[in-house]
Amino acid sequence: MNAAPCRQAVVLVGGEGTRLRPITSLMPKPVAPMVGRPFVGYILDNLARHGVERVVFSSGYLAEVIEATIGDGAQYGVHVSYVVEEEPLGTAGAIKNAQSALAPGRFLACNGDVLSDVDLTRLGALHAERGAMGTIYLYAVDDPRRYGLVRTRTNGQVIEFLEKPGLDHPGPYLINAGVYVLEPEVLELIPAGRMVSIEREVFPRLASAGSLYGLQPGGYWRDIGTPESYIAAHFDILERSVHTVVANQMGERYVYLAPTAVVEEGARVVPPAYVAEGAAVGANAQIGPLTFVGEGSAIAEGVVVAESVLQERVCVAEHAQVRRSVVVRDSRVGAGCQL
Q1: Do residues 97 and 190 touch, judged by C-beta distance below 8 A?
Q2: What is the pLDDT of residues 102-133, one digit of tens each?
Q3: Helices 63-70 and 39-49 meet at what angle, rounded to 10?
């Protein structure tokens, strides 16, 4: 099989992100801010890092907001085009909907709510080496109860899928991590114009034919689908646990102060912490640890913000305390309040 790397990808960005509300009440999950950038930007960064040149966004919910935010993808080093589903089509249906925008040949497909620095080059090379029709990025978890598991042979060939087993099931607990390498022939298995699940309808057919593989190329992985996971992803980026452009900004001190940020005398910025452009931190305030302060936010005198995410233009009045919280854009926390 041709071992050339994938130069194109489909990113599934059509979901409503209901589990992440209220963060996604007014914006789609793929462009929810994550340490000052649209979340899906991190996916595009990793695709570009591994040689992908063309990306198709298969979108639905608030598609126009995604396109307005990401544009043509030039700032991420790729070219992005868009297809929009008129009604939900499921994971496989959304990939099929992008077929007309794909060039002939192999492609990557990614869920648009997964933060990962997976080595896509290695995943693609293993896919070609096995002669697979489809290859799933597998990730090991400690608790399988939230996920379906994938059982494989020693060479990675998928044997079966297990739906949310209990802790009594023998490990290892390998889950479908939402990143795939697919041959174009897989598209012919997907009926057009209706709801189709790649996990429940397409992958079992490939597994039965012996042409589906699941491989562990390593790397960081997190699904950001809940508020708890969303804030944890911020922490992981701030701690440089995942390879991102933000990690480069943070440097060895684990602190980033934007050039236009203002930190008054007596204020403390405790690493890891990130203070974005135009943010102001008042005297005797404490920012951090594990804290992001968004663009244009105002932190008054004596405020403590720790293990928290403040989105753009948040105002926190004197002597308030914000801990382990996400404060959405344009919000105000009153003087002396505790969150």
Answers
A1: no
A2: 999 999 999 999 999 999 999 999 999 999 99
A3: 60
Q: Cα-flanking dihedrals φ and ψ of residue 176, to 5°? A: -70, 115
Query: Is the distance from CB of 145 to CB of 167 less than 8 angstroms?
Result: yes
What is the Cα–Cα distance from 251 to 200, expressed in whole angstroms?
43
Vertex 127, ends 73 and 74: CA angle to 5°?
5
107 CB-side CA count, 13 A:
23
Lowest mean pLDDT among 89-93, 147-151, 330-334: 147-151
Torsions phi, psi for 127 (to 5 deg): -60, -50
With contact defined as beta carbons under 8 Å apart, do 126 and 58 qualify? Answer: no
CATH superfamily of 8-228: Spore Coat Polysaccharide Biosynthesis Protein SpsA; Chain A (3.90.550.10)
Name the segment(s) of the chain with CATH classification 3.90.550.10. Answer: 8-228
- Closest listed residue to residue 20, CA positions, set 309, 292, 231: 231
Contact in structure between 82 and 67 (CB atoms under 8 Å):
yes
- pTM (predicted TM-score): 0.93
User: Which CATH code is given to the segment(s) 251-333?
Assistant: 2.160.10.10
Peptide bond connecting 22 to the previous residue in cis, omega within 30 degrees of 0: yes
User: CA 222, CA 236: separation in Å to the nearest integer?
Assistant: 10
Taking only the tens place, the pLDDT of each residue in 39-59 is: 999 999 999 999 999 999 999
Q: Who contacts 87 (Cβ-Cβ below 8 Å, separation ≥6)?
A: 60
For 155-192, the pLDDT digits (tens) are: 999 999 987 666 667 667 899 999 999 999 999 999 99
Burial call 159-171: b when 16+ CB within 10 Å, e when fewer = eebeeeeeeeeee
Residue 123: Cβ within 10 Å count: 26
**Distance (Å, whole) CA 216 – CA 139:** 6
